[in-house]
Design brief:
The chain is about 70% helix and about 0% strand. By secondary structure, the protein is mainly α. Helix 1 runs antiparallel to helix 6 and helix 8 runs antiparallel to helix 9.
Length: about 350
């Protein structure tokens, strides 16, 4: 029987478009993730790569048109996007959303938005189990983006708001990164037979902490910039206990007092990185590709935390904390012989963690 195609139906994604999405489009918007994706086993690249591309599209939508008058528009479009991820997707809705998102987008982002229909066509072509996981993680991630748009004022409004409590920050780090560790665990155990002995529920919890380690590092690194965009992720009740307000963090001179709040969060991040190390070493040594895909973000995140801790300028807007591209490539090269040795990995990670501990 021939299927009737309705106006809202999505076209079938062909092999050329599929490959372009998972190679050229992703490479254009994230070179670092592209390298991680390429090291994965082939059967994992499609669901993982598509989940990243959809999340990156949603994040760009929520981040566009930062002016106060566009805050509601950004949220509306984000919710439309989430509805399309939940399904069923509609061709005309996606085309309209893509067209609205082109304004102010970079060349690479324009290519991404121009590929939005193909991305959703690819989503519909996945098997049912992979579809469910991809839809779940992208919808969860958009809840974190929604939290950003509803809790904090528009970037140019002159306002500044803080998350109320530690529970809110923990929830935020789950929504924007911890859930990725959960998704990663479920999708890799479904596709990689070397993980058949894993307890998926237990390892998902460890994976959540892995994601939280990376996001909490980003929060601590970006404090000064986020404050000047109206966002204080450091819990307001903890600041009040230290005799501070979110506005006080705008003045680098208040850093000595702010350390009473910031240092404990750095220690929490280090605790999460310990869980990330446990997660990495639980991957069988024979699964070299999967180990590398876990090792690289772990080392990058921990090295960033080391640089932040040692900088001593956590509130200074002139201080930029990042690892160089040269460091990234050198680390990737050094990781190739080390990845199969648990003792070498433990020593490497322990050294980074000790550097951070000694600096704070």
């Amino acid at each position: 029987m021939t299927r009737t195609i309705s106006p809202g139906d999505l076209p079938t994604v062909d092999t050329v478009s599929r490959n372009r999405l998972l190679k050229d489009v992703i490479k254009g918007v994230s070179r670092s993730f592209y390298l991680t994706l390429r090291v994965l086993l082939k059967n994992l690249r499609e669901p993982v790569g598509l989940a990243y591309l959809l999340a990156r599209t949603a994040d760009t939508i929520s981040d566009q048109r930062r002016r106060a008058g566009f805050s509601g528009v950004r949220l509306d479009d984000l919710l439309v996007f989430r509805g399309q991820v939940e399904g069923p997707a509609d061709l005309e809705v996606l085309q309209g959303l893509a067209a609205r998102s082109l304004d102010g987008a970079s060349t690479e982002e324009q290519v991404m938005f121009g590929s939005m229909v193909d991305s959703f066509s690819l989503l519909q072509s996945l098997d049912e189990a992979d579809q469910e996981q991809v839809r779940w993680v992208v919808m969860t991630l958009t809840q974190g983006m929604e939290m950003d748009l509803t809790v904090f004022p528009a970037e140019d409004s002159g306002g500044l708001a803080a998350l109320p409590s530690a529970a809110d920050l923990d929830r935020y780090t789950y929504l924007v990164a911890g859930c990725v560790g959960e998704f990663w665990t479920k999708i890799t155990t479904a596709h990689d037979s070397s993980l058949k002995e894993w307890d998926v529920a237990d390892m998902s919890e460890v994976g959540v902490r892995f994601g939280k380690a990376l996001q909490l590092t980003n929060v601590l690194r970006d404090i000064s910039g986020d404050l000047r965009n109206g966002r204080c992720y450091i819990p307001e009740d903890e600041l009040m206990a230290a005799g501070l307000t979110p506005q006080d963090l705008l003045d680098p001179a208040n850093e000595p007092r702010a350390r009473a709040v910031l240092v404990p969060w750095m220690q929490i991040a280090l605790g999460h990185f310990q869980a990330a190390e446990d997660y990495l070493l639980a991957v069988p040594r024979s699964s070299v590709r999967l180990r590398l895909a876990c090792l690289w973000p772990l080392l990058l995140g921990l090295a960033t935390l080391v640089r932040l801790a040692s900088s001593g300028r956590w509130l200074d807007p002139e201080s930029t904390v990042k690892v160089s591209r040269r460091w990234v490539y050198r680390t990737m090269l050094m990781s190739l012989p080390a990845v199969i040795s648990n003792s070498l990995l433990r020593r490497w990670i322990k050294n980074l963690r000790r550097q951070a501990e000694n600096s704070i």
